[in-house]
Structure formats: C-alpha cells, structure tokens
C-alpha cells in the first residue's frame, strides 16, 4: 500500500502522523511511504531521518495526497485539505466529527474512508488511540492553568501549591477519565487541593484508592458543580462522550458565581467543550476572558509538546496502520472489532450513530 504522511497545517500544530521508527516498520512490510518535506521538523524528525528508513520525501502536500492510498495524520483535515482527499482514500486521524458539521459534510462529499482515532474502542470500552493524547492534555491542563492563574495573565494571582502559612490553590476537575485522572495527579503533585467530580462511582472509588488524601471525590451533578465553582481557582473540563458532543456542565450564567480571575481549561473543546462559553483557541492566542473568567480552550493542546506527543501517538497507532496497510481497510475492519468502531464515514455515508445524533440527521443503511 502507498501511505502518505502530510505536514499538519492547522495553526501551531507541530506533531506529525508517524515517527521514523513507524515508517521503518511500514517499509519493512513492503509498503511505500511518502512523507511531505518538513512534516516532522516540529517534532524533531527531519527529512534525512525519514529517508534513512526508506521513506520517499515529496515537496508538496498535494503530491502526498495524490500519490497515497491511505493518509495518516494527527488532526482533522482543514478547509485547505478538503479538495485534496480522493474518493475511496483511507484517512486515519483524529476527526471529532460531532463538533463540526462543516467537516462532516466535507468528508461526506469527498467519499473517503474516514477512520477516527478517537472512536477506535477495545472490548473493555477503553479508547487506545485517544488515551495517550488525553494523558498529555490532562497533564498539560494543570501546567497551563497554573500559568494563567498568574496575575500578569489576568488570573487570580494564586500559586497552586501555596507556601507555608498560606493555603494551596483549589482545583476542580470535571470527569474522572484519563484527562481528569492525569490532571488530578499533576495538581496533587504541586500540592493543590483537588476536587474531582464524576457520575461513575467505580471511577470515583478508583480515584479514592490511588490518590493522596488532598484529592477528594464527589458525585457530579449541577448542585455540586454550582457549589464548587464559587471557591475553586482552576477548573478543568475533562468530560468525554465517545464520538459525541460534550455536555455543557458549566453554563454561561454560572460564570457570575466564579471569582474574578478564575481559570477554566476546557480539554473537551475538541468535542464542543463542556463549558457553554467555550470556543476553540490556538496556541498563538490561547485564552479569552468572559465575565472576568479566563478561558483556555486550545483545541490541540498536545501540539505544544510535539516530540512527546508524536512518540506517544505512533506507539499506539502503528499496529492499526500496519493492519490497514497489510490487509486493506475492509478486511482489517472485518477482522478487528476495535478498528471497525473507528469507521465514521464510508464513501459518503455516515455510519457512526453519535455523529448522526449530534446533527439530528437520519440514519443511512450501509
């Protein structure tokens, strides 16, 4: 199979779809790999690194799309890429369709095979291709939140860990999934007081078992959320509904109950955000302020640490890329139930029900 690795062109996205080590494995399995010139520069992988493992470096993104049977990316295609995608071409990347009707309609029009990293699901319900980026984003959420709590960044001027004689900052984490657990771990490590909310009691029991005593758990409901936003300094939105739009747990009217300089980091922004006032931002302009509340809503947080993120992503995507390349997408998805759940759009038909529900569309037989 001919596999293309284009350069990501989303704002400040420095990750790349495959490391040289991953390309080496594909070439070893007799596949042809095209890498766009400079695609890996931001992650610390250069053209010569790819050439040394057998990749063919092409000058333009158009060449990569035109010559490839399968495209392996990191982020969803943006408008400039829509016209490059070919009918029947496999595109394997993060899509988050439920948060963008425009993207969904564009991929329907292109009649491609869209396999979404974020909906590949194992038998136990875990999301193996989303997990490493959720781990990165959860940890980064605290780093960024701590920074924007500083007064020069319009935050409350709170040091999360406090100092002797001064109470630590308070962090509220919505969701005890991968993002929430990692955020809580980082915040606790800094010495902050952490409250983590979820509706899944099994997850809350797990948090209680593994976290130190200054991480406390409560059941998530509107009453408890409204109670805690009044005195917490940093709020992390880490709620995930598989392949669907995130629920608005914090509404616009709740902002008035927060103290000026409170910081919200909405990691769920890729799926529409779990805060009503969320809108996607970039690493170039990461924050905005509404009602004196600082919102950090960067849609590709792991892109800020591209070396770590690209390595972590290739670790988990490579086995699936190899299977798709070795067997073709039809046989690969037929024999791998996890990969089959990654199928979102097939030759113009949406087959993932959460996308259909997000836009109130009618289901289509495939």
From TrEMBL:
It catalyses: L-alanine + NAD(+) + H2O = pyruvate + NH4(+) + NADH + H(+). Residues 4-137 form the Alanine dehydrogenase/pyridine nucleotide transhydrogenase N-terminal domain. It is an enzyme of class 1 (oxidoreductase). GO terms for molecular function: alanine dehydrogenase activity. Coiled coil: none annotated. InterPro entries: Ala_DH (IPR008141), Ala_DH/PNT_CS2 (IPR008143), AlaDH/PNT_N (IPR007886), AlaDH/PNT_NAD(H)-bd (IPR007698), NAD(P)-bd_dom_sf (IPR036291). This is Alanine dehydrogenase. It comes from Sediminicola luteus.
């Amino acid at each position: 199979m001919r596999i293309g690795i284009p350069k990501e062109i989303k704002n400040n996205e420095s990750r790349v779809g495959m490391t040289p080590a991953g390309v080496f494995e594909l070439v070893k399995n007799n596949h042809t790999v095209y890498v766009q010139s400079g695609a890996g520069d931001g992650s610390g992988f250069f053209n010569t690194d790819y050439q040394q493992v057998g990749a063919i470096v092409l000058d333009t993104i158009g060449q990569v799309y035109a010559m490839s049977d399968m495209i392996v990316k990191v982020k969803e295609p943006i408008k400039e890429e829509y016209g490059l995608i070919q009918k029947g071409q496999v595109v394997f990347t993060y899509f988050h369709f439920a948060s963008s009707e425009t993207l969904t309609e564009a991929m329907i029009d292109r009649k491609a095979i869209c396999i979404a990293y974020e909906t590949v699901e194992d038998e136990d319900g875990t999301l193996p291709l989303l997990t490493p980026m959720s781990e990165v984003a959860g940890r980064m959420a605290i780093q960024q939140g701590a920074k924007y709590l500083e007064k020069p960044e319009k935050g409350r001027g709170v040091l999360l860990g406090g100092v002797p004689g001064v109470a630590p900052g308070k962090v509220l984490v919505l969701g005890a999934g991968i993002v929430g657990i990692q955020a809580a771990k980082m915040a606790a490590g800094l010495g902050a007081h952490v409250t983590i909310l979820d509706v899944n009691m099994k997850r809350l029991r797990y948090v209680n078992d593994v976290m130190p005593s200054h991480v406390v758990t409560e059941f998530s409901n509107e009453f408890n959320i409204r109670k805690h936003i009044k005195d917490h300094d940093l709020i992390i939105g880490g709620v995930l509904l598989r392949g669907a739009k995130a629920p608005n747990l914090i509404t616009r009217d709740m902002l008035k109950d927060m103290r000026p300089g409170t910081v919200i980091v909405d990691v769920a922004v890729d799926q529409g955000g779990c805060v009503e006032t969320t809108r996607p931002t970039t690493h170039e302009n990461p924050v905005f302020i509404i009602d004196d509340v600082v919102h950090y809503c960067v849609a590709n947080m792991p892109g800020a640490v591209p070396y770590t993120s690209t390595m972590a992503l290739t670790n988990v995507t490579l086995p699936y890329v190899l299977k798709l390349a070795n067997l073709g997408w039809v046989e690969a998805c037929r024999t791998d139930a996890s990969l089959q759940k990654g199928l979102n759009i097939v030759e113009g038909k949406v087959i993932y029900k959460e996308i259909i529900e997000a836009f109130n569309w009618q289901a289509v037989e495939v």
